[in-house]
Structure to design on (326 residues):
């Protein structure tokens, strides 16, 4: 049985402004399987949101998809026409944004926004849609759905708006949900509830979830697979236990060593020394070289390493000199 819900192949995206070009995403490939949570992690600017927005062609007008395909249900979402894409958006592949302002219309009562996703994709009357909208709001754990339905986004808390967005994203039972930092603006309790809801969807409906997050705690809690991004590239992928327990890329290693340990009383997170590169030209060599403790001559001579599962690796890594375990 083919259990792949969505495949991204060789995705490259550039932003072109008057002054400069940013090579935001380079040669990214991954598969998202049914009933699986794949977490994308990496520092700010690594290209995570650009990947997410590319999947449904929601990028800003300065963005240009240089190459690649997004295969869903036998079609390439980067190649289908706008009408076909609209039929997929929200219905089969849905997005949850970090910022409720970006995902909800400030001028429409939220109940009507939930009802609209139903009427726009299903043959159902307005009255029935409103009734179902109340149930959807109840299902995402909103205590007083009647009141919430009549409210405008600004009258609700961030956590409530986030739940409304999850309601909209899940209303039509999509095969794939892309959630870009769905909990980073929320307090820890609400965050745990939202993650629990995403986890239930995966278990009960077999939804495939691409979850973008900065938080390794979140990854360990809900993800099955993890992809680590650095400077627009996927540098390591694999099962959560493998990547978090035995990281192969020096960058993943460094990221994990910045996490506070329980027995260490730390005021602040340690940062990885150095800065991620500016991405104004295509990388000639591995972009991690300036910050890497394990650079070889080959790293400086050869093109950026591609993600590959070496014989003695436990999972794929893009590195000429990976961190060996045991
Ligand atoms: N509209 C834009 N115009 C120009 N450059 C952009 C634009 N959007 C993003 N970029 C650049 O593309 C790169 C990737 O950005 P992206 O937002 O995808 O990163 P991210 O991994 O989601 O970061 P964060 O964790 O901060 O959300 C960055 O260098 C960013 O500055
Ligand atoms: Mg982002």
């Amino acid at each position: 049985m083919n259990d792949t819900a969505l495949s991204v192949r060789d995705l490259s995206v550039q932003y072109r402004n008057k002054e400069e070009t940013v090579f935001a995403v380079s040669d990214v490939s991954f598969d998202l399987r049914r009933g699986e949570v794949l977490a994308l992690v990496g520092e700010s600017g690594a290209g995570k949101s650009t990947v997410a927005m590319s999947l449904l062609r929601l990028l800003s007008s300065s963005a240009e998809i240089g190459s690649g395909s997004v295969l869903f249900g036998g079609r390439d979402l980067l190649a289908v026409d706008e009408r076909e894409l609209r039929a997929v958006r929200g219905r089969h592949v849905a997005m949850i944004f970090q910022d409720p302002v970006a995902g909800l219309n400030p001028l429409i009562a939220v109940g009507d926004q939930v009802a609209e996703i139903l009427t726009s994709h299903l043959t159902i009357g307005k009255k029935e849609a409103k009734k179902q909208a109340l149930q959807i709001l109840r299902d995402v754990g909103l205590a007083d759905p009647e009141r919430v339905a009549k409210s405008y986004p600004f009258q609700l808390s961030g956590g409530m708006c986030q739940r409304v967005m999850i309601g909209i994203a899940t209303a039509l039972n999509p095969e794939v949900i892309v959630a870009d930092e769905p909990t980073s603006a929320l307090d820890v309790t609400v965050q745990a509830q939202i993650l629990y809801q995403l986890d239930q969807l995966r278990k009960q409906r077999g939804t495939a979830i691409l979850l973008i997050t900065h938080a390794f705690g979140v990854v360990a809690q809900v993800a099955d697979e993890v992809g680590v991004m650095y400077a627009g590239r996927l540098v390591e992928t694999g099962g959560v236990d493998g990547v978090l327990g035995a990281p192969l890329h020096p960058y993943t290693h460094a990221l994990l060593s910045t996490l506070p340990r329980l027995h260490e009383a730390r005021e602040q997170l340690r940062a990885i020394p150095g800065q991620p590169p500016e991405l104004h030209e295509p990388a000639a060599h591995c972009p991690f070289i300036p910050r890497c403790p394990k650079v070889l001559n080959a790293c400086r001579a050869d093109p950026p390493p591609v993600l590959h599962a070496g014989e003695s690796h436990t999972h794929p890594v893009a590195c000429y000199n990976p961190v060996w375990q045991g």
Q: What stands out?
A: The chain has twelve helices and ten strands. Residues 4-96+176-183+214-293 form a domain with the Rossmann fold fold (CATH 3.40.50.300).
